[in-house]
Amino acid sequence: MKRSPRTTDLLELLLSLAIVGLVLFIGSFLRLRADLTNEQRYTLTPATKQMLEELPDVVYVKVYLTGELPADLERFSRSIRELLDEMRVVNPEKVQYSFIDPSASADEKTRKETYDQLQKEGLQYSSIRIRDKESFSERIVFPGALITFRDRTVPVQLLKTQLRTPDADIVNRSINNLEYELASAFRQSTQREKARIAFIEGHGELRDMEVADITNALGELYEVKRVKVDEQLDALSHTVPNMRYRLNDYDAIIVAKPDSAFSPRCAYILDQFIMNGGKALWLIDPMNANLDSLRKNQFSMAVAKEIGLDDLFFNYGVRFNKDLVLDRSCAPIELYTQPYGNQRKLERFPWYFEPVLIPQSTHPIVSNIDPVHLRFASSLDTVGTDSVRKTILLTSSPASLAQRNPVRVSLNIVEVPPPFERQSTPHMPMAVLVEGRFRSAFSDRLPTEFINDPSVGFREKGAPTAQIMVGDGDVIGNRVDQAKGMYFTLGFDRYANSKIYGNREFIINAMNYLLDDRSLISIRSRTITLRQLDPDRIVVDRGRWQLFNTALPVIIAVLLGLAFQAWRRRQVTRNT
Predict the structure, then answer these.
(1) Across all residues in the chain, what is the average pLDDT?
(2) CA torsion angle for 457, 461, 465, 467 (degrees, to 10)?
(3) Rounded Cα distance, 215 and 476, in Å
(4) Residue 77 and residue 175: Cα distance in Å, rounded?
(5) How many angstroms separate the most distant Cα atoms in the chain?
């Protein structure tokens, strides 16, 4: 029986709908995902996936960035939601989230109470200006989240800036670090015991305020304390009954820019901490150069400092050279030049005594971080040592040279640059990682009765451990405004008025690596290229693009419909 064309068309339509419905029904049971971005921005790293798969219980995330937002923060909020969705794909039962607008209430008193409560819980607000066609409006936002695991809540500031008004560059950097921030917050909330880090003090090391930024950053993952050794054997370790060796009280130590000598007894305590498996980050200035001495005079003489640790370093396989590295890749300095009219002119010059090191190594500690800024830094040499593996992390640029002790530090160097073309020593080591089993620097130097004392627990051959040595103490020091009693983010540059250096990431990665948090390094080292929209063009061309996005699909659909009808008429005419 021959069907009419209308019946045939109806059957084809019903069959097509049935096929589409069947495909959608089958697809609801499948999780098919394809990340077509060049940077794989929508793909979680293996470390994050493993962490999510091992969650012991439900982790609930409350994100407070939603509502009426400018384009940059709206994109940031969308990126947070997309990342949380990706996390739920890995473990949908253990990862839950919600977005809350703290400004949703129409009552001003209720909003203020909500703001105060969020600040008490550890979140910081940002004041933003929302631009309309002809006016601006102020709005308070909390670009952060509260991560709750069982009875523990951890605040995480997803948009990290000391400026109350975020800009597009800060938003882009925050999106780039979003997976790291959430993954570390998940780990912090689920981890009951934190590794312990001790900042050694008592020998002129950097003060609390000078390392405040990195202390707070490390404090999010670890327990950080300041410890004065003061020649006490129990300062870093304690004895355990029926155990031959002492047990460390800390997992790692940081020695940040000491300016006075360690006594042999203090050096012994640090040595035995290493021998018992402790990790160490040594940030040492072998020379006593600084800018303060140039404020009254045009030059000063930098001489070697004696800190009493050279034997330890040499025994561990590294020598801190008594020199200052001058590098063509350097930070600027502003100096007054000859008077221009009745006023002195302030100009910016390259300051060769502050190298800016661009990481060349593929090691995860320095992979994909911004250049690292040093001040009056010294070079390092590696020494042949059995059972110790050495990795160069940071080096000077190809146009660099080292001036040996004593060194004349003069402001006139900006007028007469060093002869890099004739005397360069390229790629001098500036930061070295040493790993393995170290031998005590006090072997064959101690009396027998001291070695045999059970309370001493002397260890000649160390347990496997790792150390990082950097020829600059200022690499960890953040800029401090003494007048206002505040500090800036580590890596902040006062001339650029923003964070442009990777010192913060370098120190955090170094401690992550030493404390075996390799997964956090792999997350942080990924780089996502973000394409920024022009906010001015968004306002000017908004109407045109809205019309384009709404009208063009309709026009295309109408044209396709007309073309299909014309094709059908031609087919019917041809068949008849």
Answers:
(1) 85
(2) 100
(3) 10
(4) 9
(5) 116
Cα–Cα distance, 84 to 94 (Å, whole number):
12
Unique residue bearing structure tokens 């019903």: 14
Q: Where are the beta strands (DSSP E) in 358-505?
A: 372-373, 380-382, 388-395, 400-404, 407-410, 429-436, 465-470, 480-481, 486-487, 492-493, 498-499
- For residues 219 and 164, the answer to whether their CB atoms sit within 8 Å is no
Give me 169's structure tokens. Answer: 């560059």
Q: Residue 436: which pLDDT band, with cuts at 50, 70 and 90?
A: very high
166-200 tens-digit pLDDT: 566 677 777 877 888 888 888 888 877 889 999 99
pLDDT at 502 over 50: yes
Q: Regarding the domain delimited by 46-186, which CATH topology (the fold level of the hierarchy) does it fall under?
A: Glutaredoxin (3.40.30)
Summarize pLDDT for 6-39 with one digit per residue, the tens: 777 677 778 878 888 888 777 666 555 666 566 5
Cis geometry, peptide bond prior to residue 155 (ω within 30 degrees of 0): no
Amino acid identity, position 542: R
* Residue (of 501, 393, 573) closest to 5 by Cα position: 573
How far, in Å, CA of 19 to CA of 210, rounded? 67
- Helix, strand, coil shares of the chain, percent, nearest 5, are 35, 25, 40
Model confidence, pTM: 0.73
